[in-house]
Amino acid sequence: MTDVAQLEPWQWPEEHWRGLVNHVRAGQAYRPTTWKDGARCAFALSFDSDHETNELRDGGKSIGRMAWGQYGARVGVPKILDLLARHSVPASFFVPAVTALLYPDEQRRIVSEGHEIGIHSWIHELNSVLPYGAERDLMM
């Protein structure tokens, strides 16, 4: 039998990909019986502020790809924050620790404007392939 680790995702047997999905299913519905002020639904806005970490996590050193990441910090996040402020809409920003270290003023602005920041790994590593202990250490 072929080791699943050696297969590409499109080659995985159904049992394997179903197991991955079922591992994270909470199994509980969170829909309330009534919504605040008679609303019929709710939504959340969240943004991943990965910046250069997509390139860094794979050991890349591409100047072009790093520049794509810097565009997010220089242009993307400020435009998103301006849009959210214009409409008084709070949001969540998921930020790798390396991004937070590279752009501390961005994180301060996000928080000062009433948004929340959630952990989004250390250097945008692929948590699904990390051993449990390594993932825990990186989050701590």
Keywords:
mainly alpha, single chain, TIM Barrel, 140 residues
Task: Please describe what this structure looks like.
The protein is mostly helical. It has a domain of 94 residues: Glycoside hydrolase/deacetylase (TIM Barrel, Alpha-Beta Barrel). 45% of the residues lie in helices and 8% in strands. The chain is built from six helices and three strands.
Topology (elements, then pairings):
Blueprint: H1 14-24, E1 46-48, H2 53-57, H3 63-86, E2 92-95, H4 97-102, H5 104-112, E3 116-119, H6 132-139
Parallel strand pairs: 1-2, 2-3
Q: How large is the share of residues in beta strands? A: 5-15%
Overall 3D geometry?
A: flat
For the record, what CATH class of the domain at 46-139 applies?
Alpha Beta
What is the rounded distance between the termini?
A: 38 Å
